[in-house]
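Batch queue: ligand-bound targets. Current item pairs a single chain with NAP. No template structures supplied; prediction is de novo from sequence plus SMILES. Inputs echoed for audit trail.
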Amino acid sequence: MTIETKAPMSGKIVLVTGATNGIGKAAALELARMGAQVVLVGRSRPKTEATVSEIFKKTGNNALDYIVADLALMSGIRQTVEAFLQKYDHLHVLINNVGGIFAQREVTAEGLEMTFALNHIGYFLLTNLLLDVLKASAPARVVNVSSDAHRFGALNLSDLQSEQSYGMGGFRAYSQSKLMNVMFTYELAQRLEGTGVTTNAMHPGAVATGFGRNNRGMIGFIFRSFGHFSLTPEQGADTVVYLASSPDVDDVTGKYFDRRKAVLSSSHSYDEAAARRLWEISAELTGIASPQPTA
Ligand SMILES: NC(=O)c1ccc[n+]([C@@H]2O[C@H](COP(=O)([O-])OP(=O)(O)OC[C@H]3O[C@@H](n4cnc5c(N)ncnc54)[C@H](OP(=O)(O)O)[C@@H]3O)[C@@H](O)[C@H]2O)c1
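Prediction returned. Tokens below.
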């Protein structure tokens, strides 16, 4: 298949995390089909290279690139940004999609709880380190893949890493991390006011992907069985692609989307003081000099 000359995303550079499977892979493929230059981030070199070849074969788009990094590690996030900035001076769309649920509490080599590290810091640090290039590329967009699981989450600022209460099957830590994605989006939108960079969070639906299948025992079994009544990755990626590319949302920022519609997120997610505190704690943990709110 060849790229149409007036492909709607031609000239746009898009970075997608968690691009080797599920929703991220489907979004990367669709955006490549739309003519974007897509940079895929994956954790396994062979799998990432195979994904790039598959997308090339399916779309004919040869403006594909990849970075291999472990996004559960802050060092991996920094390597990703370094590798990206060595080659590119523009970034029009950042899709923060990487994520997972971990039945047993795990701690990364850097000492952070895995769900918090991958699902929240994996978005927070990557975005912050790319803010300058996003602003320089405005209009630009940041799309954060959250989940309706955030509705079950409550932000415990004194237990962000779920040391006191991890929850059955990791679900409490997961729902809290997905709430962090929504609150991070709202806080980021405020900090980006007037920059031409928008940011929105979204729920992809219940999608048959590799999600949760990393776990053993009952939790892994439940996720493997889930596939029978789920959306396809392409359906799950639809709102991601919409938020990344549609002129309908050119000026829309700081919203939570489900099936291409802005909907209300949980009442907890609108706690601005908590969102600001989450930002401050995350900035401290990651060692970034965070930009000040423009308002
Ligand atoms: N599936 C659903 O029903 C559902 C519902 C709501 C929200 N979501 C959200 O959707 C997002 C994508 O999930 P998915 O369902 O597409 O899951 P998935 O099929 O498991 O894909 C996850 C992607 O993240 C990558 N990844 C995992 N750990 C990584 C790490 N440490 N470093 C770098 N990359 C890593 C995986 O790489 P490998 O290919 O190497 O495994 C894969 O590319 C997540 O944020 C999830 O919370 C999913």
